[in-house]
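Lab notebook, bench 4. Still working through the backlog of constructs that have no structural model yet. Next entry is a single chain of 309 residues. Request: give me the C-alpha cells for it.
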Amino acid sequence: MLEKRLWFPLYNGKLLLFGPRLACLAGEDSPLLSGKTQSKDALNGETQGKNTVRTKRDDLRVFAGIAPPVPAAGMLHAVGEYDGMPCVAYAAAHDPDAPDEPQPCDPSSDPEAADLDCVAVSLRAVHAVIGMELYGIAGRGEQMLFWDKRSRHCSVCGGQTELAAPICKRCPACGNEMYPVVTPAVLVLVRRDDRILLVRGREFTRPFFSLVAGFVEPGETLEECVIREVLEETGLTVGNVRYFQSQPWPFPSNLMIGFTVDWVSGELSLQEDELLAGAFYARAELPALPNPFSLARRMIDDWAHGACG
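Model written out:
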C-alpha cells in the first residue's frame, strides 16, 4: 500500500493550501491535514476523522495524500515528518491568478485533490492558518527550493550539477560539491535602564518597530557582529552580550540569532541609509511591533514580561 505524505507545494513565496469547494463542506474522510488547533472553540466539540486535524481556519489545510495535489515544476524535497507522516516540499507549477481567492485545483496524479479549492497563502502569514510546527516545515521547504534553484550549475566550472544527497549537489565535470547556504544574521535587544531600543528599518513593508539587526561578516564572531552592528547603526557602545534564541528565517534563507546587550555609552545617532527612526521605549509605551511569530517579537515580549532584564 502506498504511503500518504504531507505535501507542501510552494509558489513565489506562498504555500498552496487546500479546502472544500465553496459549494460543499468536507466530511470526516477529507484528505486534508494541518496544524493542531490552538483552542477548544476551533473544534466546536466535534470528533475529527482520522485523516483530518482541524485548525482555526477550518477550510484551509495542508494536503495529505499519496501523490502531489498539483503538478510539480522541479524535484521533490524531503523536509521532515509531522505526526509520523513524511513531508515533501516542491515548486508548484500551479500559478494562482488571484492568490487570495479560492480556485479549483489543476488535474493531478492524486484524484482526491481535483475536488478541492486551492489557495496561495504568503509564508509570512501562513503560520496563523496551519500553526508554527507546520510553518517550520514549510519554511524549510522554501529554503530548499531557494538552494535548488541557485545550484543547478557548478559555481566553479559552470557545469550542470546532479543531486548526490538530500542536501548535496555534485558537479560530474569537476567534482565540486554544493550545499544549502544559510546566512546568519543577529538580532539585538539593547537595554538601557528600564527601556529597550526599537528601530524602524527602511526596508520594512509595514509601519512597525523592531530590533537592531545585521548580517555576520567573514572572520567575525557572533558577539563581534552584535557589537559592530549596534555601533554602526545607532552609534551606541554595548556590552554584556548574552545569547537568547535562534530561528530559521526563509526570507530567503537566513538563520536569525538573538542576543540581549546592555547600553554602555553613547547617544543615539541613526545610520540614515538603514534606519528611518529609533528610540528607547518603556514597557508601557511600546509602538507597533513585528509579527508574533518572529524571533524579534519573542525577544521583545520576553523583555516586556520581565523575562530578560
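Notes after review: The two ends are 55 Å apart (CA to CA). Residues 132-149 form the longest helix (18 residues). Flag for follow-up if needed.
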